[in-house]
Specification:
heterodimer; A: alpha/beta; 6-stranded mixed beta sheet; 4-stranded antiparallel beta sheet; 8 helices; 37% helix; 28% strand; B: alpha/beta; 11-stranded mixed beta sheet; 10-stranded mixed beta sheet; 10 helices; 21 strands; 38% strand
C-alpha cells in the first residue's frame, strides 16, 4: 500500500530525514517510536504533503501512485489521512460544515456524488456517540476552544468520517488522560480492517497497549534504526531512548 | 486647504437653492453651512483626520448637481435587500414610483425630507443640522448646504417596528460626473424600537459622488439598529457621516458595510450623552482592485456608566488600501465607562495595505477601555489542515475568508442583508 524508499527530506540545508525505508501492506498497523527530534513527526508531515519540508531524494508510492507528486488535497482523495499532533483551530467554520465540505471534496475528486445532508448528519452522530462526543460539538467552530482531549477526539472523528486507506496518527496520545486514551484508541480500533492501514507515531509505549501494532520501528537521527514486532516497544520502554542513541551512532559509524 | 473657486458647481448649486422657496431657518442653516465649507475647503492629507485619504480627485472633478430622475426598477439591490417599508431615492431625490410605504403602525412616520419640509414638521428645525457638526467637517458642511432631499424616520414614544425601514439611495448620473447630497434624519422616541437601513448604490461605469449625512437621535430607553450598506459602483466617490446622539439607557447598534466605490470615507460617530447608554459599532469592509476605503469612528463617552463595543473587520485584496481610525473619548464626567474596540484585517495580497489606529482620549479615572488591532494573512496552518482533509486550496482560502467575515456578518439581525453579504463573499 505504502512504500517509502530511501527518503531524504529537510528544511533548507537542514536534513531531518536521512534515508527512510518502510513498507506498509494493507491492513497492517505500524508504530514509529523515537525520541524528540528523531524525525518521526517530520515523516508524518512529509507524507501528508506539508510544503515547508523539501524532499531531497527518495520515493514514496501509495497504491502504485507517486505520492510526492500529489497536492495535500489529492493525497486526501487518494486515501491518506493525517491526524495532527496539534489540530488547527478554524474560527468561523463549524465542525459540521467542515467535515461535510471535506467528505464532499474527496468524493468529488473521486467522481462520486455529494452525500445527502440528512444521511451525513445521522452517520456523524453515530460516530460521535462512539467517541463520547456531545452533538453540540458539531455546531462549534473546528477545534476552536476545544480542550486537548476534545481536539484529539475530533481528529479521530474526522478519520472515521473520511474513511481513509492509510491513517497516520501523529502523537494522537499526547496530552490525553488514560480514559480519553482508551476512548480514542477504541475509535481507532473500530476502524481497523483488511484494507485500511495505520502508521502510528508516538513517543510513548503506553498507546501501543491499546492500539496493538503489527510492527514497531524505532527512529533516531532521521533513520529507522530498528524494526521488530510489538515486543520492541516494551523493550524500549524498559531501556529508554538513551541506549538507542548509542545504537544509532554505532550504526552510523558502521 | 484646497482653494475653492466661486465658480465651482457646488457654489452654483447653492445659489440656485437659495433662490428656492424654503423656511427661513433652513435658509439660514444652509448659508451658515456654505460659509463653513468656504472657510474649511476640502480636507488635505496634511490634516490628521485625512492623513491617509486624499480627496484631491473629488475636489478636482467638476461634479454637477445630480438631477431628479424617475429611476429604474431593475437595480439588483432592490431585489436583494427587500422590505415592505422602502423609500427609494434617485440622485438624492425621493422616487415615489419605486417606493412602498407598507403598513406602518400608528406613531411611525417615514417619508421624504422635502415633503416633511413642505408640511412644516416642527421636529425638523430642532434636529436637522443640529447634531452632525458642519463647522469643522467640510463634507458635512457641504451636505448641510446642498441637501435637497432625503429621508425622515420618526418613531413616537414606545412604538416598536418589527420590519426594517429600508432607505435606498441610488445614483443614476447620466453622462457627466454628478454629485448628490442625501440627508437622513432618524428620531427614535422614548422607548421605541426599530431598525433602519440605508443602502447606497449606483452604476459600475460612471463617475459620481455621493456625500451623505445621517443624524440619529435615540431617546431614553429606545433601541435602534442602524444598517449602512455602501454598495456604490466601482468608479464612485462616497463620503458619509453618521452622527448618533444617545439619551439615557438608549441602545444604538450600527452596522457599517462597505463594498463599493473607488474611494469611500465613512465617519461613524455617536455621543453617549446620558447615563446607561450603549452603543455597538460593527463594520465590515471588502475592497479589491484599487479601491480605497477609510472608516473613522468616534465614540464620545460624555456621561457615566455607558458602554460601547466596536468590531471592525476588513478584507483587502489586489492593490486595495484601507484605513481604520477608532477614536474613543472618555470625558471627565464619564466614570465607569466600559469601551471595547477591535479592528481586524485580512490582507489577501501583497499589494493590499491597511493603516489602523486606535485613538483613545481618556479624562476619567475609573474606566475600562480596551483596544486591539490585527493585520494578517490567511492562516497557513489552517490552509494546510483543510487541504489534508481533501478541501482544495482555492476552496480552503474561500472558506477561511468567509470565516473571517462571519464574526461580523453573524451580528447582523436583518436576514436579507446577511444573505446578500454571504452571496457577495467568494
Amino acid at each position: 500500500m505504502l512504500r517509502i524508499t530511501s527518503l531524504h527530506a529537510g528544511i533548507g540545508e537542514k536534513r531531518i530525514l536521512r534515508g527512510i525505508d518502510l513498507e506498509i501492506r494493507p491492513g497492517e498497523v505500524h508504530a514509529i517510536m523515537g525520541p524528540n527530534g528523531s524525525g518521526k513527526s517530520t515523516l508524518a508531515q512529509v507524507l501528508a504533503g506539508r510544503d515547508t519540508y523539501e524532499v531531497a531524494s527518495g520515493e514514496v508510492t501509495f497504491q502504485g501512485q507517486d505520492l510526492l507528486a500529489l497536492d495535500p488535497e489529492e493525497r486526501a482523495a487518494a486515501g491518506v489521512f493525517l491526524a495532527f499532533q496539534y489540530p488547527v483551530e478554524i474560527p468561523g467554520v463549524t465542525n459540521m460544515y467542515f467535515m461535510r465540505a471535506a467528505l464532499n471534496s474527496i468524493r468529488k475528486q473521486r467522481g462520486l456524488a455529494e452525500v445527502d445532508a440528512f444521511d451525513f448528519m445521522e452517520s456523524v452522530k453515530e460516530r460521535m456517540e462512539l467517541l463520547g462526543m456531545p452533538e453540540a460539538m458539531l455546531n462549534r467552530a473546528v477545534n476552536t476552544g476545544f480542550s486537548g482531549g476534545e481536539k484529539k477526539r475530533n481528529e479521530v472523528l474526522q478519520l472515521a468520517v473520511l474513511q481513509p486507506r492509510l491513517a497516520i496518527l501523529d502523537e494522537t496520545d499526547s496530552g490525553l488522560d488514560i480514559d480519553a486514551l482508551k476512548i480514542v484508541a477504541g475509535g481507532v480500533n473500530a476502524l481497523r480492517g483488511a484494507d485500511r492501514s495505520f502508521l502510528v507515531v508516538t513517543h510513548y509505549q503506553r498507546l501501543l497497549n491499546y492500539i496493538v501494532p503489527d510492527y514497531v520501528h524505532v527512529m533516531s537521527g532521521g533513520r529507522i534504526v530498528r524494526s521488530g514486532d510489538k515486543s520492541l516497544a516494551l523493550e524500549l520502554e524498559q531501556k529508554g531512548y538513551s541506549e538507542l542513541d548509542e545504537m544509532a551512532v554505532s550504526e552510523l559509524v558502521r | 486647504m484646497i482653494e475653492l473657486q466661486e465658480k465651482s458647481p457646488f457654489f452654483a448649486h447653492f445659489e440656485r437653492l437659495r433662490a428656492a422657496e424654503e423656511p427661513a431657518w433652513l435658509r439660514a442653516l444652509r448659508t451658515e453651512a456654505m460659509g463653513s465649507f468656504s472657510r474649511l475647503g476640502f480636507p488635505t492629507t496634511r490634516q490628521e483626520d485625512w492623513k491617509y485619504t486624499s480627496v484631491a480627485s473629488i475636489a478636482k472633478t467638476p461634479f454637477e448637481p445630480a438631477p431628479p430622475a424617475a429611476g429604474q426598477a431593475s437595480w439588483p439591490v432592490l431585489e436583494r435587500l427587500t422590505s415592505d417599508v422602502r423609500l427609494v431615492f434617485v440622485n438624492g431625490w425621493f422616487s415615489p414610483g419605486l417606493s412602498s410605504a407598507g403598513s406602518l403602525p400608528a406613531g411611525v412616520s417615514v417619508g421624504s425630507l422635502a415633503d416633511a419640509l413642505r408640511s412644516g414638521s416642527p421636529a425638523l428645525e430642532s434636529h436637522l443640522g443640529r447634531h452632525a457638526g458642519f463647522t469643522d467637517q467640510a463634507f458635512v458642511a457641504l451636505n448641510t448646504a446642498l441637501a435637497g432631499d432625503g429621508a425622515v424616520v420618526t418613531l413616537d414614544r414606545d412604538v416598536a417596528l418589527d420590519q426594517p425601514v429600508v432607505l435606498v439611495y441610488l445614483s443614476e448620473p447620466g453622462g457627466r460626473p454628478a454629485a448628490s447630497h442625501p440627508r437622513t434624519l432618524i428620531l427614535a422616541g422614548r422607548g421605541s424600537q426599530a431598525s433602519v437601513a440605508e443602502i447606497y448604490a449606483g452604476p459600475e461605469d460612471a463617475v459620481y459622488f455621493t456625500n451623505a449625512v445621517s443624524e440619529i437621535v435615540v431617546r431614553e430607553g429606545a433601541v435602534l439598529d442602524h444598517y449602512r450598506v455602501q454598495w456604490e459602483g466601482r468608479q464612485a466617490y462616497h463620503v458619509a457621516t453618521v452622527q448618533g446622539v444617545q439619551d439615557r439607557a438608549s441602545v444604538l447598534n450600527s452596522h457599517n458595510i462597505s463594498l463599493g466605490a473607488s474611494l469611500a470615507r465613512h465617519d461613524i460617530n455617536s455621543v453617549l450623552d446620558a447615563e446607561g447608554a450603549e452603543c455597538t459599532l460593527n463594520g465590515l469592509y471588502l475592497a479589491g482592485g484599487k479601491q480605497h476605503v477609510d472608516n473613522h469612528t468616534l465614540l464620545d463617552h460624555a456621561r457615566p456608566n455607558c458602554m460601547s463595543h466596536e468590531l471592525y473587520k476588513g478584507i483587502l485584496s489586489g492593490q486595495a488600501a484601507g484605513v481604520f481610525n477608532g477614536k474613543i473619548i472618555v470625558r471627565q464626567d464619564a466614570q465607569k465607562t466600559n469601551a471595547i474596540q477591535s479592528n481586524k484585517n485580512l490582507l489577501l495580497s501583497g499589494g493590499a495595505a491597511i493603516n489602523t489606529k486606535p485613538q483613545l482620549e481618556i479624562y476619567a479615572d475609573d474606566v475600562r477601555c480596551t483596544h486591539g488591532a490585527t493585520v494578517g494573512q490567511l492562516d497557513r496552518e489552517a490552509l494546510f489542515y483543510m487541504r489534508t482533509r481533501g478541501i482544495p486550496e482555492r476552496r480552503s482560502r474561500e472558506l477561511l475568508t468567509r470565516a473571517f467575515a462571519s464574526e461580523v456578518i453573524g451580528l447582523i439581525r436583518w436576514q436579507p442583508l446577511r444573505e446578500a453579504l454571504e452571496a457577495e463573499l467568494p
